[in-house]
Amino acid sequence: MKERRWQDWLNLLIGVWLFISPWAIGFAGTDMTASWNAWIFGVATVVFSALAVSMPSAWEEVINILIGIWMVISSWVLGVASRAAESNAVIVGLLLILFAAWAMAMNRISQREMTTTN
């Protein structure tokens, strides 16, 4: 995976959004469980997306997919009371899954093209 993919950059921005979303949406002071979930997994998303941007590899995408899956189910697992926090987590999770899977698919296509042209 030597190509730089725009999906990695989008996941990095999604991670930044996830980190600031408790303040931006307004649940930072009212739902600490959802806030800590967003802060921890926002930082994790930024870290793994930055790794994917700097040295693309499949394992970073797998981690982002796992983070996305967690974000989709986390509101129910953690018992988040805020509808805004719940919606944010689900949307962010689905976007992370989408872009990470898309990056992996693009990598497979480019690897196939390289194999057939050589």
Average pLDDT value? 88
Helix content: over 70%
What's the structural domain tally?
Answer: 1
Low-confidence stretches: none
Measured by DSSP, the beta-strand proportion falls in under 5%
Note the overall shape. elongated
In N-to-C order, the SSE pattern is: HHHH
Number of separate helices: 4
Give the beta-strand count: 0
Radius of gyration: 16 Å
Précis, in short:
The chain is mostly helical. It is built from four helices and no strands.
Q: Could you explain how this protein is built, in words?
A:
This protein is mainly α and 118 residues long. The chain has one domain. The protein contains four helices and no strands. Helix 1 runs antiparallel to helix 2, helix 1 runs antiparallel to helix 4 and helix 2 packs antiparallel against helix 3. The chain starts with 5 loop residues before the first helix and ends with a helix. The mean pLDDT is 88.
Layout of helices and strands, plus pairs?
Elements: H1 6-26, H2 32-54, H3 58-78, H4 83-117
Helix pairs in contact: 1-2, 1-4, 2-3, 3-4
Descriptive labels:
single chain; about 120 residues; mainly alpha
